[in-house]
């Protein structure tokens, strides 16, 4: 009864010490009972024997909980407990004086044998169920391992392919941009200039995509080593703000310092500038019209660390997106998508933050 109550009553969760002690208590009780076979009966006081009623009730509740939970061995355990509970109750009643002590209770031995038999079947059923669950878990783990291996292989092939394409495209794109600039000077008419400007913008957009992708691939390499140095944390912030103010002249950018902004902090200034530029550019594209964009530089002097925050007033990300916004080529179509972008900027920023332990 004690051992059967462990799982249904969740003793391991609520009463761990009692749960650990139960096997020893059950073993002592069993040894006391078996001592009669060797004519060395361990005397148990009547009030202790009367406590068997409490154990019988506890076991009954445990069996009912087992049945309600639908455990595979619950039927066998119910039969086993029924065979043993009756002699237990009669023994307790005899100890309390409610049962004549001169009445021989012959069915004790067959009851115990039936109890042992049904308990044996219950244990076998439980072992079979556990074995089946283990096999299913191993199969699922193997499937997940194969899928992870396949995903890793595909990602590596994709990275190699994009890197190859990017490297192969950089040279012809550079030639194309140079040729368009020369062509614009050679054909100064307004009609030609408009077409050349559109072609130049398309080529520049493709060149920016390639540069960002190559930089992201470089950051993701296992052998990449950032150039850490003690730098004032306001330096990357000012450089990123200056670059974005030139790209988004109509936007209002603000910089707020908290703490000692000039205290040196260990960082890669170029990478941090890159991350802040991408965050500011993203904010400028998605913020509401005429709303300010604020860059906060919060320096913790005790830990010598810095926290950058780019804050803007905008529609925000849909709740279902979560961390998807920081994955490669993830863009919310229809929300500022007409303003350009490749879905790489936030992934770059996330990589830079990870490199810096943020």
Description:
The chain has 358 residues and is mainly alpha-helical. Helix content is 62%, strand content 8%. The protein is built from ten helices and five strands; from the N terminus they run H-H-H-H-H-H-H-E-H-E-E-H-E-E-H. The strands form two sheets. The protein has a three-stranded mixed beta sheet with strand order 2-4-5, covered by helices on one side. A hairpin with a 4-residue loop joins strand 4 and strand 5. Helix 4 runs antiparallel to helix 5, helix 6 runs antiparallel to helix 7 and helix 7 packs parallel to helix 10.
Q: Cα-atom Rg, whole angstroms?
A: 38 Å
* Secondary-structure element string: HHHHHHHEHEEHEEH
Which stretches are poorly predicted, pLDDT < 50 over at least 5 residues?
none
Binned, the helix content reads: 55-70%
Largest sheet: 3 strands, mixed
């Amino acid at each position: 009864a004690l051992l059967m109550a462990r799982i249904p009553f969740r003793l391991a969760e609520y009463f761990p010490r009692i749960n650990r002690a139960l096997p020893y208590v059950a073993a002592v009780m069993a040894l006391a009972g078996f001592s009669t076979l060797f004519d060395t009966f361990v005397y148990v006081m009547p009030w202790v024997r009367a406590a068997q009623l409490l154990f019988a009730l506890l076991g009954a509740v445990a069996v009912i909980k087992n049945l309600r939970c639908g455990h595979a061995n619950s039927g066998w355990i119910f039969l086993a407990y029924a065979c043993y509970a009756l002699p237990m109750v009669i023994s307790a009643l005899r100890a309390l004086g409610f049962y004549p002590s001169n009445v021989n209770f012959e069915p004790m031995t067959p009851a115990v044998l039936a109890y042992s038999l049904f308990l044996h079947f219950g244990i076998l059923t439980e072992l079979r169920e556990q074995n089946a669950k283990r096999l299913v878990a191993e199969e699922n783990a193997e499937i997940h391992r194969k899928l992870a291996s396949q995903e890793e292989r595909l990602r590596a092939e994709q990275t190699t392919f994009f890197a190859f394409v990017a490297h192969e495209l950089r040279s012809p794109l550079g030639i194309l941009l140079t040729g368009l600039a020369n062509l614009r000077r050679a054909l100064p008419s307004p009609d030609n200039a408009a077409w050349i400007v559109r072609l130049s913008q398309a080529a520049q957009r493709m060149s920016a995509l390639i540069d960002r992708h190559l930089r992201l691939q470089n950051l993701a390499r296992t052998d990449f080593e950032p150039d850490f140095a003690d730098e004032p944390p306001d330096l990357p912030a000012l450089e990123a703000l200056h670059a974005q103010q030139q790209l988004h002249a109509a936007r209002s950018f603000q910089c707020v310092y908290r703490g000692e902004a000039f205290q040196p902090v260990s960082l890669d200034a170029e990478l941090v500038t890159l991350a802040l530029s991408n965050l500011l550019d993203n904010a400028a594209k998605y913020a509401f019209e005429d709303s300010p964009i604020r860059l906060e530089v919060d320096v913790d002097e005790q830990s010598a660390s810095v926290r950058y925050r780019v804050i803007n007033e905008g529609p925000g990300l849909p709740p279902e997106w979560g961390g998807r916004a920081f994955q490669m080529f993830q863009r919310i179509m229809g929300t500022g998508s007409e303003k350009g972008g490749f879905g790489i900027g936030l992934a770059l920023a996330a990589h830079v933050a990870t490199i810096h332990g943020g």
